[in-house]
TrEMBL record:
The chain crosses the membrane at residues 21-42, 62-83, 95-120, 164-183, 203-226, 238-261, 338-362, 374-395. Keywords: Acyltransferase, Endoplasmic reticulum, Membrane, Transferase, Transmembrane, Transmembrane helix. GO terms for biological process: cholesterol efflux; cholesterol metabolic process. One of its GO terms (cellular component) is endoplasmic reticulum membrane. InterPro entries: MBOAT_fam (IPR004299), Oat_ACAT_DAG_ARE (IPR014371). It comes from the Eukaryota. PANTHER family: STEROL O-ACYLTRANSFERASE, STEROL O-ACYLTRANSFERASE 2. This is Sterol O-acyltransferase 2.
Amino acid sequence: VFVIRKSLLDELMEMQHFRTIYHMFIAGLCVFIISTLAIDFIDEGRLVLEFDLLIFSFGQLPLALVTWVPMFLVTLLAPYQALRLWARPRAGGAWMLGAGLGCVLLAAHAAVLCVLPIYVAVEHELPPASRCILVFEQVRLLMKSYSFLRETVPGTLRARGGEGIWAPSFSSYLYFLFCPTLIYRETYPRTPSVRWNYVAKNFAQALGCVLYACFILGRLCVPVFANMSREPFSTRALLLSIMHATLPGIFMLLLIFFAFLHCWLNAFAEMLRFGDRMFYRDWWNSTSFSNYYRTWNVVVHDWLYSYVYQDGLWLLGGRGRGAAMLGVFLVSAVVHEYIFCFVLGFFYPVMLMLFLVIGGLLNFTMNDRHTGPAWNVLMWTLLFLGQGIQVSLYCQEWYARRHCPLPQIVKEAEIIDNPLSWPLASEPTFSLSVVPAASEMPLENLEEEGLPKNPDLRITQLLFLLSLPEHRGDAATWLLIMKPCANPRLAEGHGPP
């Protein structure tokens, strides 16, 4: 049910005591800026704020925005036109032809949304923030399309003989694609006017959160994990890195919450005069993880509850609430892991395990029967540890892949390797380079293949029957060049700066 109401933080900001907490976070950003200027002045003798991390993260942003245009257009046209084809009077074979054409439109819509952003991100090697824009829009448009069809198709298909057949207006569908909700309704409660100063304030706060996140990563994460790869692996170092990452991890969680769930959604809600601003509840007061999952992101929770949990219960005949709840966790965990995989460019199922396994267990064990401040403290403690694990492991894997990338031939052959941040027990790590081995190729010509001329290289001729399309059925001799991995942890002085 949609009603006109404010966001909770807007109500709390009217209290002087809560505004002071907000001011403390702003003071923290000022401290980061002063620290950056001071360190830069001491090291370089100049007062300049560098935004290398921000520039790198949002690299090729115009390409990401151009890619969004066909994604939006196909979402704007295909589902609505498919519904109109299904809503035509059912007379003879004309309706069947239109229904088939509607299915083709939806298949094309799904193909464009699923394939195009992945192709652009991989082919053009988009950096993380630009990838983030594409994957969030991909998931958002898919969820909105599903909600629109799920809410309108059943009534359309139940109509008989052309009587009572109804299709929503195009303007209502267009409004739905931009308004901050994932549940389709023909109308929503609207505010009487737009406060443009409120819109500008929220966009400015969202931009400030992005800068804040860059300072946190640049000062608290990059130096630690970039240097960590220069030291031998140990369990002690891993645990210390997780503990160190808890503070930046929880800061990142709070910044994502405030920037997106409060500032970004409220800015669009105000511009579109969308009245219901309950995008979250007081999740910070939760004493159970079941309540935390329900209140952290109400926008996504409502979609999962309506279309996964309730539809799952309906398919199970009203029984099996536990199975329906597990279905919700499975869908949510897979989508979260897909987003991480898309943004970072590698599959490392830390989020999948934490969300599906640990989160699922906590949802059933730390349920609503537990109340009291001790349970709230426990919830926050586990949130700190979970964020520390994610930041630590993903950062280690990121730098391991930058310092010791997989050879292109291994990627093309689709050889699945272990995460590169995992240490090998008692064995040195080598990077593999595979090049064609013509019998007349002398050893000194290896430099032409981009390999160093080094007498310590161990070269072994191996015979591979490759399954690559261009070599299928052919016996080709290849040189497997094993050289010390260009990872500063193993070979000081190698790898990118």
